[in-house]
Design goal:
Elements lengths: L14 E3 H8 L3 E2 L10 H8 L3 E5 L9 E4 L7 E5 L11 E3 L41 E11 L11 H11 L11 E13 L2
Parallel strand pairs: 1-6
Antiparallel strand pairs: 2-5, 3-4, 3-5, 7-8
Length: 195
Amino acid sequence: MGNKKDNSGGPKQKSVRFSKVIEEAGQPQVALLWQDPRRDPSFQSALRQNRVMTVQLKHAGSASDFGVVGFKQSPHAEYLIFPKPLKAYEGDKIVGIKFDLIAASKSQGPALKKSPPVRASRAPKATRPLIPRREPRFRVEIQYTAEVEQPEEIEAPNAAAARKKALEQTANRTPDFGKARVERRAGKVTKVADG
């Protein structure tokens, strides 16, 4: 195939078949990037050893899947790790990607422990609504004292007799409490229920 020149005068990217890369570098595995690749020590080791290939997956506007040596971050990419270095294919376009030639991925890291079943009857404490605590109930007797001043004119020999005669004359009268001055005072308190 060799290097050919494109219409712009620069060298055209050489195409290499995926099956040829597998013959020389071994059967790859899909890299499952569960975390930032910069924090994944095994992926970083494969990258330093030149064993990583980025496969650009076919999406709207592209002709077909193709691969390039190295890590090229893309939302439309899958990453393969080969057993042997890919130095000989740097700068080449790897074509004819056949996913049936890729080995099944091995799990990395410890297996997740099965969590105990969640009982549906009890909500977690964090989501349980807070129930306000009821306070105890008391019965309080309120004493009202109303004072109404209503002048009475009484004929009597002295002040003491005038007081006595005024009380007798007004004994059957109901005063107008609408204009009364009222005082309140809390009296006896009894607890009627606990909270």
